[in-house]
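Reviewers of the previous submission asked for a worked example of the structure-prediction workflow described in the proposal, so we include one complete record here. The input consisted solely of the amino acid sequence. No template or homolog information was supplied to the procedure at any stage.
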Amino acid sequence: MREPRVVPYPASVVLTGGEYPGDPAAPENRPETLRPDLYGPEEYKLVITPDHIEAEAGTERGLFYALQTLRQLSGAGLAVPCMEIRDRPFFPYRGFLLDSARHITGLGDIKALVDAAALFKMNAFHWHLTDDQGWRIPIERYPLLTEKGSVRLSSDFGKVHTGKHYGGFYTKSELREIVAYCAERHIDVIPEIDMPGHMTAAISAYPELSCSGKQIPVQTRQGIFPDILCAGKDSTLETVYGILDEVLDIFPSKHIHIGGDEAPKDHWRECPACQKRIADEGLAGEEELQRWFVAKICAYLREKGRSAIVWNESLKGGVPCNDMTVEMWMDRKSLCPAFANAGGKMIVSPFFYYYMDYPYAMTPLKKTYRFNPFVKGLDERGRSNVLGVEGSLWTEHIRDYDGLCMMAYPRFAAIAETGWTPPAQKNYIDFEDRFEALSPLLAAQRIFCAPRKDWNPGPLKRIAGTCSFFANNFGRGQPARSGGAEEEKP
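From that input alone, the workflow returned the following structure tokens.
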């Protein structure tokens, strides 16, 4: 195992001989100096000698990352070798997604996940708060979104059926509490309000948001559903703007995720208002109508001093706006590399490597670790426009916090190392050893990781595990992307 026993591995390490006898993370043992003239916003320098420690950085964020390195050095429970570390991230964006729409994760558990993310120097929490199966953020102007849209009659994910009402939402004060908690750890909270698809919960509360205006229930199963926001009605846009105003009031992040994925266009094809919009705007069809819709939302956010992140499907009808960021999850037509090559910003979150709701049989740890974010089709300019990486925890098939932790770790740590560590410094076998040395520190933070024996199943176990997962979880309904302790209402 290389020294230091740190994840992510630092950009530069020089061992200088000897050991430091004290606790390197103790405040009295580490003089800190801000030097914005010498260091970038996330860069730091650590000098550990037998009798003292010095930490320098350009910002408080950099000093915070220096502390995380020291916490790991002391948390391994071994003598700390003397060294000089010069460290800064390879990518500026290092995120994790938590889906609270399908199953809700309690505030205390979210804080534990945030603490772990901070330990590994992640800096973005992408919070998926609305979807077909539940609306989890209160909007005072539209109270039915939580009164009706937060509750589904049952839960029918795959072959797991719970015949009870399932519901709940976070209060605005709770949402602000998480925002403040993350800010103290230099993590930006990026809320996602998915549109125009994945809006069944909102339409169940306000049917006039759809093309038909028909009353529909909150969905109880996974899938891609035909009822989406009507892009032909001005009133739909006004409602979305009103929702976003309250979202922006809670979340100060520069970026707001507006989804844009998996939006079937069947109802738009049959809707007179949508077809009139297509004709009036000179659009070629329904995909360009989504481009027009997304562009309207991007422009509204721009007026408020924010910018949009969208899933890669929003590029199908062309580029809605130049200042948005595209998150790639499954891009069969390579629209994202073309967007980045033309100057657009891109976050990489690939389904087959970074979706943590799937078992290790399908996504072994080494597969996650070895993924190269510079995907096929990127030229030199495109590579410079890759902002970073994001691991995703969809909760359709994850119903409790312990299971969530085991699915996330160590794979989130592997993604964090890809986001921070220069490729030449990465080493998978060494990563396994370094991560395992840190497992007691994670356990003290209530993060109980998958055991090492489960990280990389052999071929037969991979086949059996994959078959078992699909047999148990996709017996009913249409598989979607997917999966939090449950909070049930009688």
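Residues 254 and 306 are 5 Å apart (CA to CA). We consider this example representative of the routine output the project will generate in years two and three.
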